[in-house]
Amino acid sequence: MKESQRLLDVHDLKVWFLARKSFLSKAKTFVRAVDGVSFDVRHGEIFCLVGESGCGKTTIANTLLGLVKATSGSATLNGMNLLSLPKEQRRDFRRNTQMIFQDPYESLNPHMTIFDIVAEPLEVNYLAANPDEKESRVAESLKAVGLTPPQAFLDHYPHQLSGGQRQRVTIAAALVLKPALIVADEPVSMLDISVRAGILKLMLDLRSEFNLTYLFITHDLATARNFVDRVAVMYLGRIVEMGDTKSVIETPLHPYTKALISVVPVPDPKTKKQKTLLAGEIPSPIEIPSGCRFHTRCPIARESCSKQEPELQEVRPGHYAACPFVDVK
Amino acid sequence: MGDTSDAVGRLPDTLLSVEDLKTQFHTREGVVQAVRGVSFHLHDGEVFGLAGESGCGKTTAALSIMRLLPPTAEIVNGQILFKGKDMVTMGEKELRTLRWKDISIIFQGSMNALNPVKNISEQITEAILLHEKATYAEALERTKSLLQKVGLNVSKLRSYPHELSGGMRQRVMIAMSLACNPSLVIADEPVTALDVMVQAQILKLIKNLQNELNLSMILITHDLSVMADACNRLAIMYAGKIVEYGGVEAIFDDPIHPYTALLIKAFPSIEGPIGELRSISGTPPALRNPPSGCGFNPRCPRAREECTKSEPQLVEVGNGHFAACARVGG
Asked: Rounded mean pLDDT of chain A?
């Protein structure tokens, strides 16, 4: 792939948290939340990190936004490493990455009006030269997310809006800085089903209108299938499979992906799927199993799996899996 | 609805029958009509689903059945007949003997429903000792066998809730709901906060237990894909009313009410063709001041003039399949 097609390039990212120090010895234990993750996001695409809770997907998002410090690795956006920016450049550069949070009931300050919420990013970045410009940029942003006419919403408080409208406000606040990359962490999972499609459709419209790129984070494979271009499946801090959405969902390679897809309930009572239920639960990221970290729950594990950690291999064009025993049929 | 509902398949094996239930909340801003006339029947050994989006009244309906409403709420109309006895008029003392032993509930959010300062064994044995004549040793034995039944190792007996994962806590909640051998279990969003793999494990457990113990269940969730998987019959609620109900296959194959049809279309699926996801325009009505006529008419793409005037009743559109829409003469 040409360098120019890439917007974001994450390389061997590790984010470890100090869990505890032993009382007497100097031994330290770490929560290895993200443990060697590499992927790239291309201009204009929707790239999805999917996995169960604790797999590290949200930690990656927080690291890219500078909310959490990376332990090692790099994340390059437009040629600049986000993780080691000099302090002076940090604010300017971070404007390029904005976030849409999961819960519009909690992410909006109840004491602020819609105008203040959407104008705040402009203020902290010293971007609005005068009140008129500020107002017009806020109005433009609200219009773009379908809150029209904007004047009807400016003086409202979040509690006066429905869940779907609140999420539109969150999107407007992310959009007002004209970012290149929007990180959306479960943007629809707190919303009622009947308004979800509307928010997703809005995100698609904004992508073409403002030339946006999304890093989409979700646990919901069914939504991912209907919305994203490429998907990376994470397990316990690592990507186990990555590729075009259609290829990954319809012909999964890694045994974890296969099991995960098999248990997603289908909204059709006549579909009787063969479910692969994995025993037990995800191990603790403090004590990650040796070798392939999935081997303790893997239905096809062999002895060698506990010894060597598999790397992502390109099994089909553009479709990668980290398992030496994938069966390609 | 009152007259028709008796004809609505009330069979001799009816365990619970709810007739024209209306529940209101008294708030500072006025009266909220959370449940506006709900009727359904539950047969022995079946899993009955109550589905709908937030605010449709499904949880309030469940709490009404358990008579566990908060002080601001009251049942203003209707009957709840459990094994022939009306729970609406029942005294607190009689209710207390009924809860746990006859009807139990699995609450939404297992992490908040367990007592954080008591270990698992204390919480389950307490329930048994309060409701049954049993010695502590007997209650402890029962607790151990319950834990095994829900797939938890007996070594977890002395664990506190914070030491367990979300899935394990939900298993504890299920064990607790079965502590006094109830014939009806109400499960309110039992798998909603769980990861998809854990969700599949818990749903399988519920299904196995339901078969093994011949339990009747009311399953409440917003997630139609879970319903498709787990229910025999299903009711779709909107704005405090049941708009459609019937066998789960009939509802999914041939939804009659426009809301049901739109809701099913709004669900993304991991299988089948990828269609464009469709949202339903507008928002659910505020139940402080519900719309006149059909509750769905302000959002309904097929609404006609009469829909704003008269309230449609549930009519039978197929074998045991009912819908409340003016288009089918409701």
From this structure: 91
Which candidate in A268, A271, A282, A297 is best for mutational testing of the B interface (most B CBs within 10 A)?
A268
The model's pTM: 0.90
User: Which ipTM score applies to this complex?
Assistant: 0.86
- Asked if B153 contacts B168 with a C-beta cutoff of 8 angstroms, the reply is no
A264/B229 CB distance under 8 A: no
B224/A219 CB distance under 8 A: no
- Looking at residue A260, what is its pLDDT? 95
CB pairs under 8 A between A and B: 117
For the domain made up of A3-96+179-321, give the CATH fold: Rossmann fold (3.40.50)
Instruction: Please write the tens of the pLDDT for every residue from A253-299.
Output: 999 999 999 999 998 888 878 899 998 888 989 899 999 999 999 99
Each residue's pLDDT tens digit, A101-118: 888 888 999 999 999 999
Give the one of A193, A201, A265 whose C-beta lies nearest to B53's C-beta.
A193
The partner residue sitting opposite B268, judged by closest CB among A53, A219, A222, is A222
Cβ within 8 Å, pair A53-B195: yes
Q: Which residue has the higher pLDDT, A245 or A193?
A: A245
Using alpha carbons only, what angle is made at residue B313 by residues B312 and B317, rounded to the nearest 5 degrees? 105
Is residue A128 predicted with pLDDT exceeding 90?
Answer: no
Identify the pLDDT of residue A12. Answer: 96
What are the chain B neighbours of A269 within 8 Å (beta carbons)?
A: 228-229, 231, 248-249, 252
CA distance A114 to A156: 6
CB contact under 8 A, A192 and B252: no
Which residues in chain B come in under a pLDDT of 70? Answer: 1-12, 110-111, 330
Q: Which fold has domain B2-94+184-198+212-284?
A: Rossmann fold (3.40.50)
For A203, list phi and psi in degrees, rounded to 5.
Answer: -60, -35
Interchain proximity B269–A267, CB inside 8 Å? yes
Output B194 or A9, whichever has higher pLDDT: A9
Domain boundaries, chain B: 2-94+184-198+212-284, 110-181
Alpha-carbon span B174 to B155, nearest angstrom: 17
Question: What b/e string do you get for B147-175 counting C-beta neighbours within 10 Å, with b at 16 or more?
Answer: bebbbbeeebbebbbeebbbbbbbbbbbb
C-alpha span between A174 and A98 (Å, rounded)? 5
Closest CB from A193, A200, A227 relative to B222: A193
Convert the pLDDT of each residue in B186-244 to its tens digit.
999 998 878 899 999 999 999 999 999 999 999 999 999 999 989 999 999 999 999 99
B224 and A193 within 8 Å at the Cβ level: the answer is yes
Q: Which residues contact B316 (CB under 8 A, 6 or more apart)?
A: B8, B322
Distance from CA of B93 to the nearest CA of A (A): 39
What is the separation of C-alpha A219 from the centre of its chain, rounded to a whole number of angstroms? Answer: 10
Calculated CA dihedral for residues A153, A156, A162, A168, nearest 10 degrees: 50
For residue B185, list its beta bridge partners.
B104, B217
